[in-house]
Amino acid sequence: MRKIVVLTLVLVGLFSANAHALAVTARSVSAGTYEDGEFDAGNSGFAAEYIIDEADGKVILDRIIMNDREGKIEEGAVYEITNAMVSEGLSALMVSRNKKGQKIVTAVREGSMGASEILLIGEDFYQFCRAFNGKFYLEYGEVER
Asked: What would the pLDDT profile of 91-114 be if each residue is shown by its tens digit?
């Protein structure tokens, strides 16, 4: 009987450990590359599911739905959350009007071949930037929860 109780507690703990994670779907609206002072619009055919796990401080690229993004990206990529805050009070002075009051998660990771990546996920938008070899790949899109 004791083994059943212990096993039940372990299973409940495993399932509740991920209860704090939030799954979102991100779809790009616009994208392009900034290099040598010039912006070149590119394809905006990227869609993926991310898991936001604030308790563990991670955002995980769970599943790629569509990808024409410049550069290599793989399912399972893990971003470290560096900031997660609601844009209110004094911090909202730096936030555009249509994003005020949203919780915005900022996460970073070192991508393939030393590229630096920044991912911002709000309640209804996301932004992505990859810096590599003297250029920035920029992407903006919508989020569904």
From this structure: 545 556 677 678 999 999 998 888
Closest residue by Cα to residue 61 from 46, 48, 44? 48
Contact predicate 50/121, CB 8 Å: yes
Task: Note the helical H segments in 1-145.
Answer: 2-17
* CA dist 9 → 18, 104, 120 (Å): 15, 34, 36
pLDDT digits (tens, 9 = 90+) for 55-99: 999 999 999 999 988 777 889 999 999 999 886 655 545 556 677
Would you list the DSSP string of 79-115? Answer: EEEEEEEE--GGGGGGS-GGGTT-EEEEEEEE-GGG-
User: First and final CA of the chain: distance in angstroms?
Assistant: 41
Q: How far apart are CA 80 and CA 106, in angstroms?
A: 8
